[in-house]
């Protein structure tokens, strides 16, 4: 008989062999820096896009229960009302994470005889959520509207289009204008995961749909509090009835403990801070970095704060990342299955915390890395 746990080591060996092994660094983040093994680097890996300064919060007792049992502190209601207003929706509901919001909301709204049209590059949490629905799943080519038009013709009880606002690993915007038109013609429901656009783009940081002027066409907004806001948690904003259904059906809401009040207060304080000041700084930095990247010959297809430097092979991306690390820059290689095989990349995210000097230094290291690795 084979030892019963042998398969674990063999799976790990395989992951290593394919250059897909992931490891966690012991790290400490201080402002724009990250310290790993006593080495301090410029952090180009943070999703804390606005870099809002840590607000002071009181240490109230935690609920330690599901919100439906004994954990519905009024701090939730206060933040949910603010988030609903932020999205011009009737109600919001906070989940422990954005990942759990996607699982809970999507599996509550979509059922067996429905058709889900999901962008090929949608985040893993959306993919997992779609699997939970038992619906007919149709993946359309990334941002390809003719493919969407073709695939939406399939007969179904109800049709749903699911897309991200700004794609997390590519930094490009979803084609929300056309998606809105297609949904209208086909009576389809749009679910928008705007984890990377929320608080970052649009008027007053209202997100990608606002940026495109199609806010009213979106049926369900899902987002994270852990990116633009730099806090923790996930939420959904929509009409009252949809939120009510989520409260009643979302397993990732019903059967888990509520977030600690400490985190809700933290998110509320950040929400109320002068976000506009940080947003302005972020976009100033993005402009500077983007222009610099072009100048040194990187042809990066992004008009957001997320810049994918496509390397290709997994091993090459690891080496590129290691070179950046040695030279004081922290930017992780992103590999399969987060992106497709041979499309490994260095994902750079620009934040408001970076100074002009950080950007100049980062560009200079990237330029020398480009030369060393013969990137075109
Ligand atoms: C598009 C997208 N949706 C959802 C999530 C999950 O958000 P959270 O980190 O709050 O679980 C992420 C996180 O990376 C994401 O990129």
UniProtKB/TrEMBL annotation:
Keywords: Aminotransferase, Pyridoxal phosphate, Transferase. Its cofactor is pyridoxal 5'-phosphate. Pfam families: Aminotran_1_2 (PF00155). Residues 40-363 form the Aminotransferase class I/classII large domain. GO terms for molecular function: pyridoxal phosphate binding; transaminase activity. It comes from the Archaea. Belongs to the class-II pyridoxal-phosphate-dependent aminotransferase family. BioF subfamily. This is Aminotransferase class I/II-fold pyridoxal phosphate-dependent enzyme.
């Amino acid at each position: 008989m084979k030892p019963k746990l042998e398969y674990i080591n063999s799976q790990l060996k395989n992951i290593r062999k394919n250059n897909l092994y992931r490891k966690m660094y012991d790290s400490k983040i201080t402002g724009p820096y990250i310290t790993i093994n006593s080495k301090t680097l410029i952090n180009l890996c943070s999703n804390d896009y606005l870099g809002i300064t840590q607000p002071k919060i009181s240490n109230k007792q935690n609920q330690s229960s599901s919100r439906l049992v004994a954990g519905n502190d009024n701090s939730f209601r206060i933040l949910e009302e603010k988030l609903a207003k932020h999205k011009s929706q009737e109600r919001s509901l906070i989940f422990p994470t954005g990942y759990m919001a996607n699982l809970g909301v999507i599996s509550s709204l979509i059922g067996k005889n429905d058709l889900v049209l999901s962008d090929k590059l949608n985040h893993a949490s959306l993919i997992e959520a779609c699997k939970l629905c038992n619906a007919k799943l149709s993946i359309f080519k990334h941002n390809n509207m003719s493919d969407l038009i073709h695939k939406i013709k399939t007969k179904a009880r109800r049709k749903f289009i699911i897309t991200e606002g700004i794609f997390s690993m590519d930094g490009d915007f979803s084609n929300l204008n056309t998606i809105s038109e297609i949904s209208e013609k086909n009576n389809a429901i749009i679910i928008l995961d705007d984890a990377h656009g929320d608080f970052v783009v649009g008027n007053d940081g209202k997100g990608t749909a606002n940026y495109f002027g199609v806010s009213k066409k979106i049926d369900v907004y899902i987002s994270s509090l852990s990116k633009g806001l730099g806090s923790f948690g996930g939420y959904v904003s929509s009409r009252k009835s949809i939120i009510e259904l989520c409260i009643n059906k979302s397993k990732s809401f019903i059967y888990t403990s509520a977030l600690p009040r400490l985190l809700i207060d933290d998110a509320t304080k950040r929400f109320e801070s002068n976000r506009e000041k940080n947003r302005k700084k972020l976009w100033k930095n993005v402009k500077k970095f983007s222009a610099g990247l072009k100048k040194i010959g990187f042809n990066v297809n992004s008009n957001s704060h997320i810049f994918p430097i496509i390397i290709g092979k997994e091993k090459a991306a690891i080496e590129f990342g290691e070179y950046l690390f040695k030279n004081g820059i922290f930017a992780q290689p992103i590999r399969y299955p987060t992106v497709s095989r041979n499309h490994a990349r260095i994902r750079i995210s620009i934040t408001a915390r970076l100074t002009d000097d950080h950007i100049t230094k980062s560009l200079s290291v990237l330029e020398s890395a480009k030369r060393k690795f013969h990137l075109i």
